[in-house]
Backbone:
């Protein structure tokens, strides 16, 4: 029997590979001869760099870049051969800025461009970039500037950083951009389908949570529209409005493809090849709830598995009553790994989580075997 | 498919029948055509009256009897036809006496006899009596007195109640005993094998937790030895020392058989007949831990099921790391019903427990089905 394990990290306790290994250990207690294959799983958000670095045998690199509010921040990304794995939030995330200092008019993605440039200088030519949780609303202008694009006002000067700077954008010079970008392929993990502008756009939908007042939303929306116009871009392509319009810049200037994070991860890890040979697929994440079916990683795994008619079991740190809806999306059965009634801190403890997952997996595989005989 | 459910109560949340019905509801969500049979399960301790009354269609009766400390207490027992189901603790339990008032020299089982006499007067001729958790060390003398036996001192007077009264016991008159007792059959649920006297006896082992000082233990042990001698009984039969020697009185004077509580319950509910026809047996209890294998109800179920080669799944409110040992005792796989990380109060909430059990059972049966196809 061949069992394929691809479990997203249990945020706060187990990493993706740790979780897969623990579930595999439980499985081997029941099926000692099973061929257990553990693959990394992530959804493009937090944990993606760790999962792919560990699962694919890469290394992590930390660089100092310009943070969203202008101060330097340490940003970590992963390198596996010529592949760079990045989380935008490391360089321009909302959590990098104290609530009192959030200002989407000024916040910049400059550090994202610096992080990419660093990876390019180290030989990376393929990029996976997760773009959830940004503090910015600058349409990716800062990233482009850091990569050598020039965004100029009518007088020929560089526009200021931040979304408000785009209001004075008159033209864009592409010839100064890093030459190696021409050889780079970008895949952007993006779980939203918003356009760049308008009532469903970046400013109106995501601006307020970044600190934008109604007046700022109006100004930022107009600035992004100007950016799209000057760039002769297609602002209505779904995902253009992701991460304050960063999706737009990636697509228009770097030739990026936008896709669900989990699909990019499954593609990079050649999940489909592995699933063809598996008799059973095991997935999971820290919490299974109504959100899980909205394109989160375990559902991506389940859908890929079901294309080949495979059985799918999921584990999670906890589940909500609404989690049952995952049964209709390819997860044949799911199990929380809680064993007793611990305080929350104990439930998040790494060693306890690992033991709980092993023990739960063991009983689940015993039940699976029971059905088979 | 025929599935037999026999789950002990989840103390503090679900009764036995409620738990069985919830697990069956989860099973039917997966196997709508399954024949789900729910039987009551108990171990002779707390919950036994409720489980058998509800499971066998009986009624509960509450009577005022003499409590262990002499004050009246309300004692509830169950009646199903000519069967009475009693928990000794209702009339002579340790929890009926405040810690400051505990006195095993004086505590009496008189109320147990009154409860039996009440049931006899209502036509009961078969008795199941669980005898865990007594406050008494009187060898069952009080019970016998309440049933009309006369325990006399050398002067021909009735000895005082309580273990210390037995020190003056000179002879026993049986002719005053309730005549209907001759037609009664008693089965006593007793999970300990202690003899009446000596270092492993009632006084030495259980006396201290009832408030006995070392001097009291010596006096009580001698008093029980005198009782055995005057009664010409066999104080070394295992279980004689249960409940302060109540096991001795039941066996010697009422012809009772002593057995594991779960075995009595399984016998009374004709469990063996049901298990022969079942394809799968589902059991469980509030907590699965290292104690579970020590003759608790789910292990009794599992052992009975395994005599016929049946598959056994167990559910519990929570499990400890040591619970895994139940796998070696007939429980093929077990599952805690916790879903999230609730505060303990919420975990004990009846409605939440029921929903959690249904939801867990559903996923377990999905997994079972998955193995089968």
Residues:
């Amino acid at each position: 029997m061949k069992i394929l394990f691809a479990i997203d990290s249990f945020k706060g306790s187990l990493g993706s590979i740790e979780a897969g290994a623990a579930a595999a250990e439980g499985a081997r207690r029941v099926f000692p001869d099973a061929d257990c294959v553990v693959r990394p799983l992530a959804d493009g958000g937090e944990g993606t760099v760790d999962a792919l670095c560990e699962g694919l045998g890469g290394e992590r690199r930390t660089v100092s870049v310009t943070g969203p509010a202008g101060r330097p921040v340490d940003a970590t990304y992963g390198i596996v051969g010529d592949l760079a794995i990045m989380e935008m939030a490391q360089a321009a995330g909302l959590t990098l800025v104290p609530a009192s200092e959030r200002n989407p008019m000024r916040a910049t993605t400059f550090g994202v461009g610096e992080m990419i440039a660093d990876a390019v200088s180290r030989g990376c030519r393929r990029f996976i970039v997760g773009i959830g949780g940004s503090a910015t609303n600058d349409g990716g202008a800062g990233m482009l500037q850091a990569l050598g694009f020039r965004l100029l006002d009518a007088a020929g000067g560089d526009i200021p950083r931040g979304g408000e700077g785009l209001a004075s954008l008159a033209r864009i010079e592409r010839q100064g951009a890093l030459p190696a970008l021409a050889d780079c392929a970008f895949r952007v993990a993006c779980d939203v389908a918003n356009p760049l502008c308008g009532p469903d756009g970046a400013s109106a939908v995501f601006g307020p949570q970044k600190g934008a007042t109604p007046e700022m939303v109006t100004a930022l929306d107009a600035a992004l529209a100007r950016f799209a116009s000057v760039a002769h871009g297609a602002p209505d392509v779904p995902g253009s409005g992701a991460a304050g319009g960063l999706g737009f810049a990636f697509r228009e200037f770097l030739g990026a493809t936008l896709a669900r994070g989990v699909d990019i991860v499954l593609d990079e890890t050649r999940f489909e090849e592995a699933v063809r040979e598996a008799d059973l697929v095991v997935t999971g994440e820290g919490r299974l709830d109504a959100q899980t079916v909205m394109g989160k990683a375990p559902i991506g795994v389940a859908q890929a598995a079901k294309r080949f008619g495979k059985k799918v079991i999921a584990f999670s740190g906890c589940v909500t009553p609404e989690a049952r809806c995952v049964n209709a999306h390819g997860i044949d059965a799911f199990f929380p790994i809680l064993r007793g009634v611990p305080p929350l801190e104990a439930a998040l403890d790494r060693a306890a989580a690992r033991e709980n997952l092993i023990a739960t997996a063991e009983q689940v595989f015993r039940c699976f075997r029971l059905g088979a005989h």
Observations:
- Chain B has 13 helices and 13 strands.
- The mean pLDDT of chain B is 94.
- Residues 350-372 of chain B form the longest helix (23 residues).
